[in-house]
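Cross-check.
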Amino acid sequence: MKPQILLITHSNDYYTIDKVKHWTQKLGGIPIRFNTDLYPAHISISNYFNHKKKGCQVITKENTFFTKNITSVWLRRIWQPTLPEELSPESKRICISESKKNLYNCLKLFEHAHWIDALHKTKEAENKLKQLKLAEELNIRIPATLISNNKTDIIDFFHNNNKKIITKLQQAISYNMSGEGASFKTSRVSEQDLIENEGMHLCPMIFQEEIEKQEEYRVIYVDGCFFTGGIKPFQSGEYLVDIKNTSQKMAKWFKADIPDDLKDKLHKLMSGLEITFGAIDVLKSVNNEYVFLEVNPVGEWGMLEKELDMPIAKHIALSLLKKSKSQ
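Predicted model, tokenized:
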């Protein structure tokens, strides 16, 4: 029997999900796409107890499957339910709350399957404090960092780092590399910002020394394999504080590599985070130092596959199928 591979995403996702689906099928698996935004309006989930049917049955427009038959799961995205506009706000709130609860409970029924990566491990791995602590323990160079809402501490940090620091959020609010849709981007902090921002204590944020860079890298880690794309900080005459602040059309990616000793340390970092996949951001300073910035457990990689012909989707499918067959 062919292994059934569940691909969890949303209905507006394309390219990366299509590539993994293609390779899963080509390599002998049965890919099943689950668009989370279509539940509950267009997808039903039924949990049977003390009935002639047993277990959890999911019915989508394209597929009907039981959770017990799924051998591997790729957690690409979980999206907010899309509900009819005519629902009252209170009804919508209840429907969304109950749908989310049932969906998350349903996902727990896939504990027998291999995940890339399990929801609880993904959430834990997103912890920037944990990432930086692990990196420091592994002797990976990291920027001087402060995570705080204390204005006095932030001002002191600013002056202790030669008035050259950046700020960013602790978790992603935009899931693409285009820079579109995000309400807050990684940006420089000026003295004027510190003087004028009276609400700083209301939002704890990450503050880091700004390291002058010659290149920045998106390193995709898949089950022990590395795929690295580089980008120069100057794009169309503009210096990019963060590579995510440019559009896909402007970005000029090139095939790159990082030293083997850094790969070894990053492999240990990913093992410490207990995840199989991650998009790792690294920069190379003007002093030729490699500096770890962060890991996004569900980060973007489509641009590297599309522009640099890197077989990332194939390796994700291989990992899903390899672990399926080993169970």
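The first strand starts at residue 4 and ends at 9. The two ends are 13 Å apart (CA to CA). Passed to J.P. for a second look.
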